[in-house]
Automatic annotation (TrEMBL):
InterPro entries: UDG_Type-4/5 (IPR051536), Ura-DNA_glyco_family4 (IPR005273), Uracil-DNA_glycosylase-like (IPR005122), Uracil-DNA_glycosylase-like_sf (IPR036895). Belongs to the uracil-DNA glycosylase (UDG) superfamily. Type 4 (UDGa) family. It comes from Brevundimonas naejangsanensis. This is Type-4 uracil-DNA glycosylase. It comes from the Bacteria. The keyword Iron-sulfur applies. GO terms for biological process: DNA repair. Transmembrane segments: none annotated. One of its GO terms (molecular function) is metal ion binding. Residues 103-254 form the Uracil-DNA glycosylase-like domain. The keyword Ribosomal protein does not apply.
């Protein structure tokens, strides 16, 4: 096979890839972001007011966060909060191929709140967080520590990301009012942040997960000025790839279990 044949085979493979990805036509030499509204050049004459965004375009982050706060504040129960999330259109992930909103599972009166990164493909199908391989491993760890029945599990975002990538800070910020409202309604005795993405979003830190894991930090909620003790640990998906790190997570979970039990016992002592 000569060089010309190799080039043709490579081109055909590339075209087949784009065809399978859903691309069926090209209209520009360069990609154009259709979500950005560019105002036309104003003609000479009286000043005109340019719309903040094009009709039908995605809301800005400030607009999305304001709408999320409004919807979250109107939810008096976790069930109502789930309905508010399903109705929320301000998170860009909603329009990126997700089947449904994935809010939470577990005990709505639990003393432990777990916050992960976001739902994956399996969670998108079943409508519950942490139900794939990583979630099953997390359940086994929590069961061994005697905490599964005391746990309420959610994520920083409620729609799966394309390609299972980490959610962006903007996507997490759009959903943050719902996460805070869940914590306000649940009133957990402790919060476990699973993975770097969740830890950074909730604690508003740039520290890496290995630097902050196992440390007790304070998650101060904007609603009501309340706070909850939060501990970060490694994500179970990481443990599936690096099983030698399970000992670190097990230590974090056991420390958390001891703290929870001591806080439960002391008020009635």
């Amino acid at each position: 096979m000569n060089a010309s044949s190799l080039d043709m085979a490579a081109a055909e493979a590339l075209f087949a890839f784009w065809r399978d990805a859903g691309v069926d036509a090209c209209f520009e030499d360069e990609p154009v972001d259709r979500t950005i509204f560019v105002a036309p050049v104003a003609a000479k004459g009286p000043a005109t007011i340019t719309p903040l965004r094009a009709p039908g375009a995605a809301p800005s982050l400030d607009e999305a966060a304001a709408e999320a706060r409004r919807l979250a504040a109107g939810a008096a129960t976790l069930d109502e909060l789930a309905e508010a999330i399903a109705a929320f259109e301000g998170c860009p992930l909603r329009a990126m191929g997700a089947r449904q909103a994935v809010f939470a599972r577990g005990n709505p009166q639990g003393s432990l709140m777990i916050i992960g990164e976001g739902p994956g493909a399996e969670e998108d199908v079943r409508g519950q967080p942490f139900v794939g391989q990583a979630g099953q491993l997390l359940d086994r760890i929590l069961t061994a520590a005697g905490l599964l029945d005391e746990t309420f599990i959610t994520n920083t975002v409620f729609w799966k990301t394309p390609g299972n990538r980490a959610p962006t800070p903007q996507e997490q910020a759009a959903c943050a009012p719902f996460v805070e409202r869940a914590a306000t309604l649940l009133k957990p005795k402790a919060v476990l942040l699973v993975g770097a993405s969740a830890a950074k979003a909730v604690l508003k830190t740039d520290d890496g997960i290995m630097r902050i894991r196992g440390q007790r930090r304070e998650w101060r909620l904007s609603e009501g000025g309340t706070a909850a003790p939060a501990i970060a640990t490694l994500h179970p998906a990481f443990l599936l790839r690096q099983p030698q790190a399970k000992g670190l997570v097990w230590k974090d979970i056991l420390d958390l279990s001891v703290r929870l039990r001591s806080e439960v016992v002391e008020p009635g002592a």
